[in-house]
Amino acid sequence: MAEVVSPVPGAGRREPGEVGRARGPPVTDPGAALSPQGEIIEGCRLPVLRRNQDNEDEWPLAEILSVKDISGRKLFYVHYIDFNKRLDEWVTHERLDLKKIQFPKKEAKTPTKNGLPGSRPGSPEREVKRKVEVVSPATPVPSETAPASVFPQNGSARRAVAAQPGRKRKSNCLGTDEDSQDSSDGIPSAPRMTGSLVSDRSHDDIVTRMKNIECIELGRHRLKPWYFSPYPQELTTLPVLYLCEFCLKYGRSLKCLQRHLTKCDLRHPPGNEIYRKGTISFFEIDGRKNKSYSQNLCLLAKCFLDHKTLYYDTDPFLFYVMTEYDCKGFHIVGYFSKEKESTEDYNVACILTLPPYQRRGYGKLLIEFSYELSKVEGKTGTPEKPLSDLGLLSYRSYWSQTILEILMGLKSESGERPQITINEISEITSIKKEDVISTLQYLNLINYYKGQYILTLSEDIVDGHERAMLKRLLRIDSKCLHFTPKDWSKRGKW
């Protein structure tokens, strides 16, 4: 869904720090003017002053989503075009370049969604940009059982791996509308009629495009939400929303939270603890048996996930919450959810690492745990698409490190190059074959030489992998996992 796992740029999209280094406002247009009423209205586009990651001023194009008046002073909620929505903010009049303002065209009105109010009339349509990685025709895509060998690249390869015909494995994959994340970041054209949490954007109106929670206090942390979350409307005007860090129940004041804590006897997430090593624990939570906690978890997660939509029907889902233990209890670090029954081999629906714990290896630990569960289940899995930018980063890194670990661990027999197939890699790691192939292409390891596929591991690849693994201190120990999978298809009701 968090991390969800932790914050990856899409092709054609600019990220903070990647934008043009503008030294001042754009060239002004002397013919530009305000609206006939002399007001800046919703749907206008114009350059807005902001600071980038290098602490430099820039003037990216932004769209006015809302205007409000506080004590006679106007504030404008802006979305920076081609930037992630988490950067949206309220700005003052002084940061707007009115000389380059673009007013919405009346003839390009955006129709309301299903006849409901909330859509922004006349606002310029946003294009849904799809990120596509094109595989060069010069690099054929190997079949799952096609032979592949690894030859030295410029004489510097340490490993040589040749693929043999592999064992075939039953798969109940029915095919998906989305490609793997490495080849497409697109949004489904229509929502699936399952428990999927993918947002189809059909209700992406002016309300859900704006952050509605100012600040969340969760235990010892204060979090600034990135996106809209459908908390009750009366709570959206509060300067701080207080959450119990153990049951995630929300309150409107610190006094409400303190009163709740005298009654709340939870010191860990509800459900079964299925993994513990050191201070790290995982709890499995049934969305039907623990509906209140699951809904509160989804509300919190939606503050940091833009690609997923929230359903209050949590029955079709299992939630795996990762916690860190101290003398006060088990504190939530992150989580992932998965459908009890997935016809598309999804082993993760939503995944998130909470912001205070990001960039510390927890996101990759969540991903590794999801594949450990798939190994116990005897299945291959893949995350539900599209991933968030941070989720894509974490998955690409995990796939790369896991596959390279397998390739570098192969030993040659009788002096010949070691051999392995895509099928075998998939079976060992539980990573779906499509993700294995896309990762090998992303790493540029696949070559075609003398009638067979070659996986070339250069010194740079090997050295980079070894350095990365030295930093990866958090790993899942399968001996500490106590998990018995259920066959949900045989259960009349969840």
Overall description:
With 494 residues, the chain is of the alpha+beta class. 18% of the residues lie in helices and 19% in strands. The protein contains seven helices and 20 strands. The chain has helices at residues 254-261, 291-302, 362-377, 389-408, 422-429, 433-442, 459-471; strands at 45-47, 50-51, 57-58, 61-70, 73-80, 89-92, 159-161, 216-218, 221-223, 241-243, 250-251, 272-277, 280-286, 317-326, 329-339, 346-348, 350-353, 382-383, 446-449, 452-457. A five-stranded antiparallel beta sheet has the order 12-13-14-15-17, with helices on both faces. It is globular. It starts with 44 loop residues before the first strand and ends in a 23-residue tail after the last helix. Residues 1-24, 26-33, 115-140, 150-160 and 162-194 have low confidence and may be disordered.
